[in-house]
Amino acid sequence: MRFWLCLGLVVSAFGQESRGTIDGRVNDPHGGGVTGARVIVTNVETGVATTLTTNDAGAYAAPLLIPGAYQIAAEHTGFKRTTRRGITLSVNDNLRIDLKLELGEVSQSVDVTDSAPLVEAADASLGLVISNKELTELPIAHGNPYALIALAPGTTFEGDPKLNRPYEPTNIVDYSMSGSVSGTTDITLDGVSNTSKGSNGRVAAGYVPPVDAIGEVRVATSSFDARTGQTSGGLVNISLKSGTNKLHGNGTYTKMRPEWMANDFFANKAGIGRGDFEYDRWSGSLSGPIRIPKLYNGHNRTFFMWAYEQLKDSRPRGGTTLTVPTSDMRKGDFSELLRIGATYQVYNPFTRRRADNSTTRYQQDPFPVNIIPASLISPVATKVMDFFPLPFNSGSTSDHRNNFPRPTSPELADYFTHTVRVDHNLTANNRIFVRGNGYKRDTRRNDYFETRATGLREKYLPKGASFDEVYAFSPSLVLNLRYGYTRFTRETEPLRGRNFDLTSLALPKSFHDLISPSLREFPVFNINGYFTSVNAGEARFMDTHSAVATLAKLRGNHSFEFGAETRAYRQSRYNGNTTRSGRFDFSTTWTRGPLDNSPVAPIGQGFAAFLLGLPEASS
């Protein structure tokens, strides 16, 4: 939990604030402050007005305003009404706007359309503001709003450039800001935490809103004040759009076909053709006032915003070159390796005996011509090999390593997300908003062999919500309370599911019956020098609670802010992976020689141990 007290010449929004502040002074023609002047700050798009009264110093402050277009009017008996138009307030802006009243009747008015530039009076942080226009009109890959963070000065992207979909929450926010460690940036959504724990302890985005739902993104890279915490990197502050008095909607569709894409460099190098990949993306949004015919008219009072996005994607995510045994090796014939050199000799563990003149070492005889007799090949190995493919090519070395390149192995993904926000003005002094969001992702990948031996399925179902209330006790005393909740869920399982018949691999029925059908799957086979079959099964449930309370007090030309923020992170995790159906590690322990501590062969001895059914370890 963090507490703070801030003193300044103007009221300023705190670091994670998704809204902005407009303040200043109302002066008479001689520059003196006008006490008791009425100031009306109006959101042009919603018609929502905040009415204030200047204090003894002529100062006013309107904190916690939704970003957008504003106009300010000031009036007092004996002076003409003055209106300043064309004010644009961005996320976490602190604009000082002074108004000068002229002598005259209140019924007379002065419109100010050309004035000095707006002054950012209370924030020295460095960074970048990204508007909705930039988010929707720039060619952002896959509608990933975090892609534009890289435009901020001093920011570099440290993640994998291929993993840039909005459903990849850890990688897309893997930025380093001003030299900080990457993956440590704090992310807020509507002023509350939007982070979760990603892989390797890095920050993950709890939710990735569609670009149609975002009003602005503010990226702060350095020079934070006491209101900003929870980060050793930068701060990404996202403000969702509010509905307005005008009904507005849009929809988009994006299509990419395989013939429009270039083949992967490594696929070309390996002589592998371009895969059959597809890409379809839909998005849309709708916003406006809430109206129920004959029952309720939310004009100038109640607004909604809803946004949706769907992505159906098939893309190459291989990047893996495996080594699989050749046709001869699968039959126990390693003679080709022996012709390369004697170091490839495979030894017969069934001839193991105590070495001559030694009490600690053992020796064994080589297989003649480096061929394992068919009678020694395990029936389990014979069945398991049906799930292993033959090589694609002869490999990159004389001993056939790297003979199974899969740079175009596809990742198939189905993803959709919803976001909804409702703003309501209870009274002129009290307003609230609520937000709800969630997405679903179903991904299938790493299916290199296209059998039960490989393939991973990932399921994501994050959701979140927030509540925010602003209450003005008086024109100089404003309270803000807000709460946010994010639940990030991720589950992995074998691509082809469970309920596998282990006796089909010639494993004992007694072993098969020990494992519940709901947990029974293709076992893990880890073969030294070659590959490891699929080992999947994990569930992570991460909850983030964020609560913030701030109190702003204007006194004279000075402002005081008091506040506290507390966050609670909780993670529940279990690893129910494939090893529950058995893990068998095959190394060179049984097939090296002539002594049990002799140097191992460059390759071959691990697969020979697999054929013989002699794991180094099992569980």
Give the SSE layout.
Elements: E1 2-8, E2 20-27, E3 38-43, E4 49-53, E5 59-65, E6 68-75, E7 81-89, E8 94-96, E9 99-100, E10 109-112, E11 119-120, E12 126-131, H1 132-137, E13 155-157, E14 175-177, E15 186-189, E16 192-193, E17 195-197, E18 203-205, E19 214-222, E20 235-240, E21 248-256, H2 265-270, E22 279-289, E23 291-292, E24 296-297, E25 302-316, E26 320-322, H3 327-330, H4 335-340, E27 353-354, E28 362-363, H5 379-384, E29 404-406, E30 410-427, E31 430-445, E32 456-460, E33 463-474, E34 477-494, H6 509-513, E35 524-527, E36 538-555, E37 558-574, E38 583-586, H7 605-612, E39 617-618
Parallel strand pairs: 2-8, 2-9, 7-10, 15-20, 35-38
Antiparallel strand pairs: 1-37, 2-5, 3-4, 3-6, 6-7, 8-11, 12-19, 13-14, 15-16, 17-18, 19-20, 21-22, 22-25, 23-24, 25-30, 26-29, 27-28, 30-31, 31-32, 31-33, 32-34, 33-34, 34-36, 36-37, 38-39
